[in-house]
Amino acid sequence: METLPFINPATGEKFGEAQAATAEDVTRAIKDMRQAFQVWRRRPLKDRIVALRQLQEVIIDSLDEITAVLNQDTGKSRQDGLIEVMMTVDRLHQYYRHAPDWLQRRRVPPGLYVFKSYYKEPHPYGVVAVIGPWNYPFDLTMPIVCSALLAGNTVVLKPSEVTAATGVLVENLIKRVPELSPFVRVLHGGPAVGAAVVQGNPDLVFLTGSTATGRKIAKATAETMTPFIAELGGKDPMIVLENADVAAAAKWGAWGAFYNTGQTCMGIERVYVVEAVYDEFLRQVVAEAEQVRQGYAVDIHNENNMGPLTFERQLQIVQEQLEDALAKGARIVYGGKIDGLFVEPTIIVDVTHDMKLMQEETFGPIMPVMKVKDETEALWLANDSVYGLSASVWSNNMRQAKRVAHRLDVGSVNVNDAISHYPVSLLPFGGVKQSGNARTHGKEEVLQFTQLRSYAIGRPPLPFDLATQMREPNHYKLGAAIMRLSFGVTLQQRLQPIKEALADKELRPEIGRMARLAGVATAVIAFAVALFRAKK
Ligand code: NAD
Asked: pTM to 2 decimals?
């Protein structure tokens, strides 16, 4: 049986291992979760929320345990681990408060079809397969699992093999809530286990991962028409305009590029600075990079603010992109040194869009900075990407900042900051173009785990019901007249049936009949309304 080693990227030490799931485990898990779905979907929402709040309580009580595992598993500081937990519980807290509103049945206006009542209601899909990444292995799995459960689904979770210790931790936390654990199954393993989960015919697949993996799953799910939603890679641009607070742009831009060692899907991956402030920005951003303290500490009182890359594959990508850029004429103005998985925060200039560094996702602490003539050139270059996750715009002229923000082909724009839009729990987050089609955060996150169903409720059709009249043969003229009267755009269009009726002998009896029916209908409606009011 395959095992997944837990490796601390800062020290290279192995600190445990997990058993990978077998093909039989995958089949059984999906079968079990399909049965469990019949129980969970019938639980009233308030009971589901009670169970999920117990998990929220367990997470808060287990804070030190979680940050310790994240620290060993990814090399990030305990404080950065705390940020993951904080973002998770903030989201869960908001979702549980708002879910009764988001998930409730809603009446739909009847339009012309007044003799029935109509409503729509979000229903769960069934078994949701959640496939997670390693860069924020807690925050990018736990809230997704909880949202799917909140909506009434059961879940099969396949956490990343790179951070398998966090996957085991997530499994253990869920097991501590007996009310919840029968409705989630965690399957550990690498891409093969993920592929088997997708092939196992779940009712919905949710991936957070690379665009390359998204493409593979899109192909696999197309065969079975399984719905597939994905949060994928990014190449987020930052634009610094002439009216920017350059010191703030340098400080928070550097933070956005180097936070989590650059392994953040909406981290700053490319910077475009207008020529008027380019030299000043470069001077200040280098000064900011000099302040970054690299290192690893187990203690919560650590002095470092940047750890190692999380695993070897990331190092290879960073090295390959740097070599390609340098060979094509780029210049490192700060950093560039590599020691094990520790990569210095690196600022690189003279970059062009034919370099991999400006086109492909890097996911490392590398900040390429490019001088541009003006806002127009910055926008053109920022949009010259297959990705479209987030972007950052810097200007103290809010009209200009908003104008640029609205012309960026991305899912979210942050004006005068970086990354900080992500922790806002009710602000939808997700990509356009090849950055994916999912939305996390808020109502949109929870509702994407539901399918909207519609209901038309009433007694058998009445003779004067429009739906009955339109089904009768020889009612073409009548139907056309009703359409014009009801939906005519101009007064002339609306009045046309009346004019035609007055001129058309054939139509007169029909109009008379409709007028009588309308009279009866009005009386029935008036009686029904009076009865309803009397009952109230
Ligand atoms: P990855 O694509 O390598 O792996 C993601 C998950 O998919 C892992 O669990 C992996 O085992 C699984 N997987 C791989 N191949 C599979 C297959 N054929 N079928 C089913 N499952 C398969 O991504 P990663 O390296 O773990 O994560 C980093 C990537 O995720 C980056 O591209 C990053 O931008 C992206 N990401 C996006 C967001 C977002 O919200 N848009 C957030 C975080 C990370």
From this structure: 0.94
